[in-house]
């Protein structure tokens, strides 16, 4: 009985893991300063965001914004100090479990044209 109850949670966790690792891989590829075409290192739950993947503080802030949007959650402030995907996983789960954003519609993304309009209004 407990096996069947654990399976949906395991499947959900695997889905979160896959989505999170995909977000990290995309961002790491965007900020990577190596030669074009250079293979990225394998990205795992335990890859260190800064040391292994080159995600500095600005890139980690961008990652957290992307996680908020992709998972429709609001991560706690201490998520900024997470140094791996494994450290982020429970924070994503807690934000979802406590309903930070369950009933909230997805946030619209700010386009570059929106930013220039905001600057013009000042």
TrEMBL record:
Pfam families: PP-binding. Gene3D superfamilies: ACP-like. Residues 103-122 are annotated as: Disordered. Residues 14-102 form the Carrier domain. It comes from the Bacteria. This is Carrier domain-containing protein. It comes from Alkalilimnicola ehrlichii.
């Amino acid at each position: 009985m407990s096996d069947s109850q654990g399976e949906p949670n395991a499947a959900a966790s695997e889905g979160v893991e896959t989505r999170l690792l995909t977000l990290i891989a995309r961002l790491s590829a965007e900020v990577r300063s190596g030669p074009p075409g250079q293979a990225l290192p394998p990205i795992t739950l335990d890859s260190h965001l800064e040391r292994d993947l080159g995600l500095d503080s600005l890139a980690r802030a961008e990652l957290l914004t992307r996680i908020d949007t992709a998972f429709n959650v609001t991560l706690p402030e201490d998520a900024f100090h997470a140094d791996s995907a494994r450290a982020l996983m429970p924070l994503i789960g807690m934000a979802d479990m406590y309903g930070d954003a369950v009933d909230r519609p997805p946030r619209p993304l700010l386009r570059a044209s929106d930013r220039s309009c905001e600057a013009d209004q000042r």
